[in-house]
Input
Amino acid sequence: MPDTLTGPATSTGARTSGSPAAAPRDAARRSPATGRLSRARRAGIYLGLLAASGFAVLPLLWGLSTSLKPESTVLATPVRWIPEHLTLENYEAVLFHSQIPLNLLNSVIVSVVTVLVTLVIAVPAAYSAARYRFRGKAGLLFFILMTSMVPGIAVLVPLYYLAVKLGVYDTYVVMIVIYSAWQVPTIVWILRGFFESIPVEIEEAGRVDGMSAAGAFLRLVLPLAKPGLGAAAIITFVYVWNDYLIASTFVSDPDLRLISVGLYTYLTQYGTVWGQLTAAVMVTLLPMIIAFVLFERRLVAGLSAGASKG
Output
């Protein structure tokens, strides 16, 4: 039987490749003009990526250059990319004579706790949406997604009122709760697509071996979902780290400010301290760079799975 099925398929493939209609396509595919067009297209793509990378990196390089200049030469002309006199006085002022280290610590605490709270809520919800069928599932998922589209400024005043009335204004708690609530819908949809990419047969095999549903989820599914969890963690962490609206609205105590608010202390009515500001920005970027370097593969894998499913 296998020989019988394979034989006609092979002969059909031979007739197709040798047919007159297929010959022009094969010739066009191998033509020099097509090859030159393909190479030109690739070159255009690479040039576009190079231009986009330069557009993104040049401001960072300029900030690094400015942070290494004495304050008296920051606005000097002609402009120099490489400082004539390198100095670390701006970094010394930022790290040892300002509240930037405390702001960094606050941001790390709020970001890490928000990531944990978001994953604790979003992982079971995403798994349930991926594995179980129930009435109203599509409508519920759409409603969850729709809540993430509400602009933060639209609910800022009610949230502020509730924070004051509940006595959580000027605390870590109010920021963590709001950040988690805003990130859960997005993370649910990302992780739902990733859980759908994991074969359900793996869990069924675990159930056959005597595992409970929770045991199969914790011991079989979660280890396979590490790329998706890493992507969700990075997305949430970056969102909290870069946010200014919530951090500036719900905290007025200088000792509780996040780094996004702390940077604005260098913008005063008397002018901008460019050297120290750019040094603080460089210090602020360091945790983000480290996080992306460590979790790059998981971030790409998690986003790809989440985008291709659901």
Residues 32-67 form the longest helix (36 residues). The beta strands are 267-268, 271-272.
